[in-house]
Amino acid sequence: MTSLPAKPQITALVPLKRDSRRLPNKNFLKLAGKPLAYHIFNSLLQLESVDRVCAFSSSDEFMDKIPPGVEYIKRDPK
């Protein structure tokens, strides 16, 4: 009898940039009273198909703005 493969693990990576060309600091501008990033993270955390949600940035300034349940991954700024 052949066993089924393990369920793949799905990770959502959300890139956060401080220096957006068209709309600076857009991830933390308010939308319906909350930062845009809040809505993105909240939606991803509610998805049953997503196992892990990560914020991905070269700047440590976002670390205190990441909600519980979201991992922070620092990337090389180069």
Write structural notes for this entry:
The strands form two sheets. This protein has a three-stranded parallel beta sheet, with helices on one face. Strands 2-3 form a two-stranded antiparallel ribbon. A hairpin with a 2-residue loop joins β2 and β3 (34-35). Helices cover 14% and strands 26% of the residues. By secondary structure, the chain is an alpha/beta fold. The model has no long low-confidence stretch (mean pLDDT 88). It has one helix spanning 36-46, and strands at 11-15, 30-31, 34-35, 52-57, 70-74.
Report the principal-axis shape: elongated
Instruction: Give the class from helix and strand content and strand pairing.
Output: alpha/beta
**How would you write the strand order of the largest sheet?**
1-4-5
Strand-residue fraction? 25-35%
Question: What's the order of the H and E elements?
Answer: EEEHEE
User: Which spans of ≥5 residues are poorly predicted at pLDDT below 50?
Assistant: none
Rg for CA atoms: 15 Å
Mean pLDDT: 88
Helical residues, percent: 10-25%
Ends: how far apart? 50 Å
Largest sheet: 3 strands, parallel
Distinct helical segment count? 1
Number of strands: 5
Task: Please name the defining characteristics of this protein.
78 residues, alpha/beta, three-stranded parallel sheet, 5 strands, 14% helix, 26% strand, elongated
SSE inventory with pairings:
Elements: E1 11-15, E2 30-31, E3 34-35, H1 36-46, E4 52-57, E5 70-74
